[in-house]
Structures are given as C-alpha cells and as structure tokens.
Amino acid sequence: MNRKRRLTREEQKMRTREELRASAAQLFAEKGVNGASVEQIAENAGYSRGAFYSNFKDKNELVSELLEERTRCELEEVTQITAGKAPFDALRDWHRARAENLDDWLSLRTELLLYAMRNPSFRPRMADCERVALHAHESSIESAAAGAHAELPAPAQLLALILHTLEDGLLFQRMLFPDEISDEVVVDAAELLLRTWLRSSSDG
Length: 204
Known about the structure:
Layout: H1 9-31, H2 38-45, H3 49-55, H4 59-81, H5 87-99, H6 102-118, H7 123-147, H8 156-176, H9 185-203
Helix pairs in contact: 1-2, 1-4, 1-6, 4-7, 5-9, 7-8, 8-9
C-alpha cells in the first residue's frame, strides 16, 4: 500500500499561500478588493484569520503577490506558446481559451487597477507588473522587425504601449459585445498593426 507523502512545513506553507491567493482572486472579482475582508479570504480558503497573518503581513501584501503571480503566469504561458512557427495562431487559441473566464479576468484586473487608484502606495507595484507586459510586447515587436529586416516607424517602446493599451480596451469591448466581437480580436488587431508598421517602414 502506497502511503501519501506528508508535505514538509515549507511545502505546506506554500500550499496555504497558494490557496489564500486563489481565494482572494475569487473574492476580489466578486466583491472588490476593499469589499473582501481578511476574515472572508481566510474562511473561503478553509483557514483561520491567524493562518492568514502567518502567511501575509496584511491584505496589501497579498494583493501585491497576487498581481505579481498573475503577471508572471500569463507571461510564461504567452512566451511558451509563441515560441513556435505560427505565434499568431497560437495566440488565437490562447485567447479563445481565456474567453471562457474573461469576465472573471477583467473583474480582477479592474479591481486591481481601482485599488492602485485608491492606494497610491500600491501604484509602483502595479507599474512594475505592467512594465513586465510592456517589455514583452517591446521584445516581440523588435524581433518581428529584425526578422523582416524592417525599420519600425516609431520606437518599439511606444508601439508596445499602443498594443498593450489597445488590448485592455478591446477586451472590455469584447465583454460588452460578445456576439459581435470575436474572442481573437486582440490578436487580429495586433497582427494588423504589426504588419502595417512593418510594411510602412519597408515601403519608406
């Protein structure tokens, strides 16, 4: 008979933190960051208030860690799937899969942005995570330009900001008009812009 290996203290601590983060993500999307108390987050995860404070100094630390985790996981997923020969096709599949949970994803992102607006001390952490996404866009644009032997019409940093901002707006429009806007609208727009930028630069 195989006995299940007992978790080490460090492994148990990591699991507890993961479950508290998952609980917080769910409640933040439902109630907002300010509407979800420490007690509710702990209880929803099956832990006590004391367990929460054994893992996080306060709710602000949990919010920061949740934001960083979500940013890192999303970047790792996108980086992995775009490493192949057909990155736009892979991105379309990824966006179609994410569309199933789009409302929850947008709710959580919106709540984190609102939290940053209401808590100036949190803004640098939010900015750091946004910068990770912007750098990823910037690298992709520079790689595409290098592969096409084209000169970009503007600094890659500016073009990355345009793409990243456009993504947010398009996802909100997708939520409001699900029957009129496709799940892959972000990829369609990014591909259109990138091809236009590269073509205009080569034509010039």
